[in-house]
Design brief:
By secondary structure, this protein is α/β, with parallel strands linked by helices. 38% of the residues lie in helices and 13% in strands. It folds into three domains: 363 residues, no CATH class; 31 residues, no CATH class; 177 residues, Glucose Oxidase, domain 1 (3-Layer(bba) Sandwich), CATH 3.50.30. The strands form four sheets. It has an eight-stranded mixed β-sheet with strand order 9-10-14-13-12-11-15-16. Helix 4 links the parallel strand 1 and strand 2.
Length: 604
């Protein structure tokens, strides 16, 4: 069977598996959409409250049902570099709406936390849960029932998935996601990584480390490595939720502002008041979700999306599984190398041809569903373009370049970097886990070694500093799953394990926590499910137990006989330190009800 037919077969299985929940979802979407512009159901008192702060022109427009009103959901704050540019977007959107004969209002704000700030800190234990808080907060903003469409201003890790869940929950409304773009390139990512490793070895001090980090993360915009934030932007475009060519245009440029204005006007054009009504719940279907998974694998995207895509799909009544993601990965080659899968950053990716080149190559290879609906109209090939600024200040679009500007960064399909996408599901007696192999050299993808068990990353760092880890081993970091402590990312482990691998030791990581888009050169079996706090076998692993991680065969095994394991007591971690401080006490109910990682790690 060809790769194209394999992708079609996976899509068909998802469609059939999802039929009951999808049909129920679409019935709800259609029922809500059939009611027409929703301000008509508001009482005079309701409506007066809804436009009390508007100017006379907007008040007059909103008094009837014939002028579309655009709700803005914003994740603006000025601490996050990626979201700081959004400060000016609402005014651009409001002016664009007036020029089109509509109105725009900020419907609500959502929290936006930075994993870069909270890495290794107690606040990181709120990170994954913030996705569902964002979905809830966006829903509160839209619940005022004042809007004919919505635009979503968000970029980073949990923010876009949370906004997508909210958008699909309000699936009767058209939805467009508006990016702010990446910061300009700073210190190359490989140089930053070297300084981190030197710091871990004690060869440079904190001053040198902070200088390198500041030169890398140096201005407004998204961090330039290909982590979850930039994977989000690729997903929104390849799923048809961005306007074409808008993902990776730098903030503070005339082209960026023009794209923002255009997106607002397009959102008003696709409401029920016009001729191109495009409710997002109908627009996003099984094919769109599969396109997102294909794009994730073709670009070596973030492992976080093995949870986020499952949760996003569920919001549309679609049941996506890890098996689907792994099967798609087996048939989609890696055609982009952006750090940590290579030395380039997303600005280099954009300059080489960007999303437009990627979309055309994948459509021509038969790996993307072209017959999808998008916010730009029917057909994904509309996205095989490059957006530019015309002489009159309007957006023009040209076909994506026929040749990559840099084949070391963005390869044509025929010259793919590897035949698979690099996200694999590992299975064995420890359960299921995710591994990202696209940044791991083939010689490091199979590790069999004794386990060294830690309860957290600080304990492992201490062992490294005392020289206890200068040997072959597989680090087991457990009680880091959603139920235990919210499933933080464990980035403090990356430099340590990288140093040991560079010294010639066979090392790997097994954890029920996360590593995310920065998963790098060391093989890491992450998201182990069931987690230790949920009765998973990970809780029975002891120091010295032989473990085998085989990313080629797709297996993860504790090499201890079943009879021994049956009589072994599971470890019980003291999780009291996770219960309070930095807001963690407010999330106790989340930890109790959260679903498994392979089910999206969601609380609803």
């Amino acid at each position: 069977m060809t790769a194209k037919r394999e992708i079609e077969a996976v899509t068909a299985r998802i469609r059939e598996r999802s039929r009951p929940t999808r049909e129920a979802y679409l019935a709800r979407v259609d029922e809500a959409a059939a009611k027409g512009p929703h301000r008509g159901v508001l009482s005079c008192g309701n409506l007066a409250h809804g436009f009390a702060a508007c100017g006379p022109q907007d008040k007059a427009a909103l008094s009837g049902d014939t002028v579309p009103n655009l709700g803005i959901i914003t994740a603006y704050n000025d601490m996050l570099s990626a979201h700081q540019p959004y400060e000016t977007f609402p005014q651009i959107i409001k002016q664009a709406a007036r020029e089109t004969g509509g109105v725009a209002q900020v419907a609500g704000g959502v929290p936006a936390m930075c994993d870069g700030v909270t890495q290794g800190q107690p606040g990181m234990q709120l990170s994954l849960f913030s996705r569902d808080v964002i979905a809830l907060a966006a829903s509160v903003g839209l619940s005022h029932n004042m809007f004919d469409a919505a635009v979503y201003l968000g970029i980073c890790d949990k923010i876009v998935p949370g906004l997508a869940i909210a958008a699909l929950t309000f699936g009767h409304l058209p939805a467009i996601f508006i990016p702010a773009g990446p910061m300009t390139s700073g210190l190359p990512n490989d140089e930053k990584a070297k300084v981190r490793q030197l710091f871990a070895e004690g060869k440079v001090g904190r001053e040198a480390l902070l200088d390198a980090e500041s030169k890398s993360y140096h201005g407004p915009g998204t961090c330039t490595f290909y982590g979850t934030a930039n994977s989000n932007q690729m997903l929104m475009e390849i799923m048809g939720l961005h306007t074409p060519g808008s993902s990776f245009v730098n903030p503070g440029t005339p082209l960026r502002d023009a794209l923002t204005k255009e997106a607002a006007q397009r959102a008003l054009a696709i409401t029920a008041l016009g001729n191109e009504f495009t409710p997002v719940g109908r627009m996003i279907d099984e094919r769109s979700i599969v396109n997102g998974v294909v794009g994730l694998n073709a670009t070596g995207g973030s492992t976080n999306h093995t949870m986020h895509l499952v949760a996003m799909a569920a919001a549309a009544g679609i049941e996506l599984t890890w098996a689907d993601i792994a099967e798609i990965s087996a048939h989609v080659p890696l055609i982009a190398r952006v750090y940590p899968n290579g030395l380039a950053d997303v600005n280099h990716f954009q300059a080489a041809g960007g999303i437009g080149f990627l979309v055309r190559e994948l459509i021509d290879a038969g790996l993307l569903h072209d017959d999808v609906q998008t916010v730009w109209g029917p057909g994904l090939r509309r996205y095989a373009v490059e957006a530019k600024l015309g002489a009159d200040g309007a957006i023009t679009r040209e076909p994506a370049p026929e040749k990559s500007g840099n084949e070391k960064v963005l390869a044509p399909f025929a010259k793919a970097f590897q035949p698979t996408g690099g996200i694999r599901v590992l299975k064995g007696n420890l359960g299921q886990a995710i591994i990202k192999t696209s940044a791991v050299k083939p010689e490091h993808r199979i590790v069999e070694a004794p386990a060294v068990v830690f309860q957290d990353q600080e304990e492992m760092q201490s062992a490294f500093k005392t020289g206890e880890l200068d040997r072959d081993f597989i680090a087991v970091i457990r009680f880091q799953g959603p139920k235990a402590n919210g499933m933080p990312e464990l980035h403090k482990l990356t430099p340590v394990l990288g140093v040991l691998q560079d010294r010639g030791y066979a090392v790997a990581l097994v954890t029920d926590g996360r590593m995310s888009g920065a998963s790098g050169k060391v093989p890491a079996a992450i998201h182990v499910t069931p987690e230790a706090a949920d009765g998973g076998l990970l809780g029975k692993v002891e120091n010295g137990d032989p473990l085998r991680l085989d990313a080629e065969a797709g297996t993860l095994e504790l090499l201890v006989d079943a009879e021994t394991l049956a009589h072994r007591e599971a470890a019980h971690a003291d999780l009291s330190q996770n219960q309070f401080g930095m807001g963690r006490e407010l999330f106790a109910s989340f930890r109790q009800i959260v679903s498994r990682a392979d089910q999206g790690a969601a609380v609803f």
